[in-house]
Amino acid sequence: GGPSEVIGRVSRKVWCMSRAAESSAPQEEPSTTRKREGDCGCAILDFLRSLVGGGPSEDVDAKIRKMGGDFGPFEEKMRGDGLGDAAVAAFKNSYEALVGGASGMIPESEISPAAGVVKLEDVTVGDGSKYLERTVVLKLNGGLGTSMGLDYAKSLLSVKGADTFLDLTAKQIMGMRETLGSNVRFTLMNSFATSGDTMAFLKKKYPALAADPNLEFVQNKVPKIDIETLKPALWPTKPSVEWCPPGHGDLYAALVGSGKMDALLAAGVEYMFVSNSDNLGATLDLKLLSHFAASKAPFMMEVCERTANDKKGGHLAVRNKDKQLILREAAQCPDEDEDKFQDITTHKYFNTNNLWIHLPSLKKLLNDSNGIVPLPMIKNKKTVDPKDDASTKVYQLETAMGAAIECFKGASAVVVPRTRFAPVKKCNDLLLLRSDAYVVKDAIPVLADGLQEAPQVSLDSKKYKLVQQLEACLLNGGAPSLKACTKLKVTGEVRFSAKNVFKGEVTIKNDSAEPKTLPPGTYENTTVDLTAAPGLGPLKVTALKTAPIDGQKPGTSGLRKKTKVFTEGLYLHNFVQATLSAVEASGSDLKTMTLLVGGDGRYYNDEATQVIVKIAAANGVRRIWVAKDGIASTPAISALIRERGPRWQTCFGAFLLTASHNPGGPDEDFGIKYNGENGGPAPEKLTDLIFANTKSIATVKCCEAFPAIDWTKLGSTVVEASDDSAVVCVDVIDTITPYLDLLKTVFDFDELKKLLQRKDFSLVFDAMHGVTGPYARSLFVDCLGLPKSCLINAIPKDDFGGHHADPNLTYAVDLTAKMGIDKTGRPVPGATKVPSFGAASDGDGDRNMIVGANFFVTPSDSLAVLAAHADCIPFFKNQGGLKAVARSMPTSGAVDLVAKKLNLALFETPTGWKFFGNLMDSKALFGGTDYTPLMCGEESFGTGSDHVREKDGLFAVLAWLSVLASYNNADASKPLVTVKDVVEDHWKTYGRSYYCRYDYEGVDKAKATEMMDAMTAATAENTGKGILGYTIATADVFGYVDPVDNSVSKNQGIRFLMTDGSRVVFRLSGTAGSGATVRLYIEKYDPTVLDKHVSEVVDDLVKVAMSLSKLPEYTGRNEPTVIT
Fold first, then answer.
1. What is the distance between the alpha carbons of residues 377 and 249, in angstroms, rounded to a whole number?
2. Averaged pLDDT for residues 108-124
């Protein structure tokens, strides 16, 4: 309140205290009392002024108000986030109760036990089906289950077999509609945190339900309150945790604010049945509906008789002063009344949170109460980040929807059977529900035959607080048998399996510091002490304490930093743990599927692999494939994930230890990225979750005693727990043969051999001391019969021989020297004994450079030529021909001309192979259009197709050899058709896109960002502008809406599109290990002039680019590091 209210409250409190102390003082007249209160108030005002600073003459109103609470900042924050009047008013009601000194407590002295509550079994009613058209079923689905360690919709937690809460709810609704012959109205109240996951789940599994436009409305969110300041809590590193759900009491405000209530009333709906999504026993019961309608009650609560299991839950009571039914929750019970609260013989009934609401009565209550239901405030003390106990202490204010029973005159309650209450609030409940004590009938969990009451389960609250802790202790996911158990108590961390059978009262204890496994068998009326039992031995999990490390946001190519950064402390450990946690949270089965680990052989790969294996084993991974010698190219990794079997060993994903084309060594770059089950780079949704995990990580799970893996030898290492409860198998595998086997299905190796056997044809391949060397040897020497001399730099080295393993004209100097071209792509005069065909690949084998004798092929031209000749490759021809092509936005439009002429679908995407992967998986993973077979490429020497989900250097090489074979194999007596011949013929058909890229590497990131921001700000100003003979038709910032999953990618590069079709494009690259790389792309199309060097054509556009960007001024660079 305002200062006068604060002063008044405090002065009256002091006056009452002084009167109590002066018990002998004579009774004073009211006028004297008021004067004493006034004197006291003035004194306290002076005191408050001294606390907040300033003398009596200063205006301290604002400061004093803050001491008593100021709702203004909360309203501003809520309005700023789009919350409406109803949400603001409801939260203001709770906040004012807090700052007004309300404790939210309901002492035993103010209530009496509820008595005479009618039992459903005693109710006699007519047919309830006549009310169905006027009824709606509402499930509360806003909870994340954070108290159980979940960070996704609680309703998506598996509860019985493979079924989640949401599965069973959907089956209940569909079954109800079929059984009752009525399209029973159904709606979900989701939250800001659950809506996306919930609706995606329903669209995928229950499209008929998801198609209902009225299926959901979203509850509100409210700010958390800093306990010290009573202001909105702030946590800038993770702003999302500044908000919390306002409890299910928000139902009423959300119904109003969303317009849902008025829409239902307009549709003639009178009766609403509400229940929690985790209470699968709460179904639409016609007897209850009929009873509620006939009773004319405005509000009815379903209650059950309390048992020992329910003594800590809220109970029904009668308020003494007005005989109104009320609900008292545990948080509203004073400590001194806890014994009475838990006395199930006194307070016999608990709220199931199954509620029946008469909507016209609710509407009237809202109108009479200034638009809110005046619910009691519940105050919970938490930390702003629930995963960080050291974060700011906050209040989370909640209301309970059942508490509305005290707001409705004439509200009633009904005692229902226990079958209508089967919620999961703790891991005790979850274990019970997953066990054989419950069975599912008609999508409803019910007690197994013969059970009258559920067993009492008491798991150690510290060891089994989180779902993850419980699931880690259920071997192979199996719950123990509890149907013959009356009481189970577990102290310490104990691991169970479906082979454990409990009967009667059983106690299991483990006082040691590590988990112990209960041996298979039947345990009846006994206490088992596992403290001295064998533990996990080499599979013992240690929780390494850690803290978030800045800068671990994975980009399109994973996480890349200097090697020394990765080797510091737990830098690598943090990222690996964050990734595995994100992968498991996204639904991957770590325990039964396989993890693949491989890399490009760079420095630190060996140590990093051992770290990953130890962390993976600690996170429950039971099968790990490690590439022999750590050598696995990026396309081979993708192939292995997709192709290597048998099916029961399928990969859930892979860690790739690579920084691609970046230099390697102790003073150079290291990298790690994660590829998913489809073989492609992690999608943005997953990388966002990984990044979020890196910002909140507190521990890393690690099996520190796990033995080191010798990756130099093929074979298996089997590591068993000392108690025989778990086995981890690490297979060192050959990554070369399976990959080449795949390529043999893509290309015609017999035709390739014919070409290579021509006496006038010769080939050289430069592996640049990267990962591709062993693959190239197997491919060109062992499979295609070429001599070893065709390979250069074919032995992988951890520093790539001290070179930059990037296949371009600047760095592939050994190849360009052999092929007779200089660093600008021009022929070297007098070059002799030049091979017919040359190619190079980068550090991890996904990039390629193609050259002919004295002739350089740009990556953009290479993609266009291959697309135009796709039918000479069996992979495309045998599937009915190429269907679509895709290129990154900076790549030249040469392939666009091919797509137009051949009537192929064309996609222009942001840079990043994951965008191509989405197109490839459009039908298989998203149920959309089938764009395969598809060919795609990037100007940065990346070419590929849907045979894998990464760009593939050797694919591009074999594709070019296939094109050359199609020209030359028909008649070996004719002169060789060369690479240059093929490209020049292509230009004659399609015209030439003169194209180049300038890379300015290692520039100051802040300056580069400032430059990009300046160009972004000037896009509107530059559109239509004339400059050095060109006119800018459009200046914009490229954005992309993915046609497959509708995801939006913004800020993907700045484009200047000229009226003659020329382009100037700027991008900042995130693939460098340090600093920033500014990339400048220049393109000019000419249909007739085909024989000039690129620099002669685009030099004037380069000047335009420098003028528009002021790059030399911002970066201090007058020349690029690399010209492609």
1. 10
2. 94
Lateral strand order in the sheet of 934-938: 905-909, 884-888, 934-938, 942-945
User: Of the candidates 327, 408, 318, which has an alpha carbon nearest to the alpha carbon of residue 368?
Assistant: 408
* Composition of the chain by helix, strand, coil, percent to 5: 35, 25, 40
C-alpha to C-alpha distance for 699 and 542, rounded to whole angstroms = 9
664-668 average pLDDT score: 95
Integer CA distances (angstroms), 243 to 189, 221, 1014, in order: 18, 6, 35
φ/ψ of 278, rounded to 5, equals -90, 5
Q: What is the pTM of this model?
A: 0.77
C-alpha span between 725 and 911 (Å, rounded): 46
DSSP assigned state of 342: T
The DSSP output letter for 377 is P
Chain Cα centroid distance, residue 494:
30
The angle subtended at Cα 155 by Cα 154 and Cα 158, nearest 5°, is 95
Dihedral over Cα of 125, 129, 135, 139: its sign: positive
Q: Is 1093 helix (H, G, I), strand (E, B) or coil?
A: coil
Q: For the chain, report the end-to-end CA distance as a whole number of angstroms.
A: 68
User: CB of 266 within 8 A of CB of 282?
Assistant: no
Scored b (16 or more CB within 10 A) or e, 152-173 reads bbbbbbebbeebbbbbbbbbbb
232 close to 242: Cβ distance less than 8 angstroms = yes
Tens digits of residue pLDDT in 338-356: 999 999 999 999 999 999 9
pLDDT at 24: 37
SS3 462: coil
As to burial, measured by CB atoms within 10 angstroms (0-12 exposed, 13-18 middle, 19+ buried), residue 981 is middle
- pLDDT tens by residue, 1026-1047: 999 999 999 999 999 999 988 8
Residue type, 966: S
Beta-bridge partners for 487: 456, 505
Here the tokens at position 1057 are 């599109």
> Which amino acid appears at position 411 of this protein?
A
Quick one: tokens of 859?
A: 């990556």
| 11-31 residue pLDDT tens | 444 433 443 343 334 444 444
Q: CB–CB of 256/366 below 8 Å?
A: yes
Q: Pull the structure tokens for residue 524.
A: 């009846």
Q: How is residue 760 annotated by DSSP?
A: T
Residue 55 has pLDDT above 60, yes or no: no
The per-residue DSSP string of 709-746 comes to P-TTS-EEEEEE-TTSS-EEEEEEE-SHHHHHHHHHHH
The answer to whether 269 and 232 are in contact (CB under 8 A) is no
Is residue 289 within 8 Å of 135, Cβ to Cβ?
Answer: yes
- Token readout for 957 is 């090489």
pLDDT digits (tens, 9 = 90+) for 160-175: 888 999 999 999 999 9
At residue 36, the pLDDT reads 53
Residue 464: both structure tokens together: 């089994």
**What mean pLDDT comes out for the span 698-719?**
96
- Catalytic residue among 588, 660, 860, 962, which? 660
Please give the sequence-ordered ranges of beta strands (E in DSSP) within 878-988, or none if there are none.
884-888, 905-909, 934-938, 942-945
Judge whether 512 counts as a catalytic residue. no
pLDDT digits (tens, 9 = 90+) for 885-941: 999 999 999 999 999 999 999 999 998 898 999 999 999 878 889 999 999 999 989
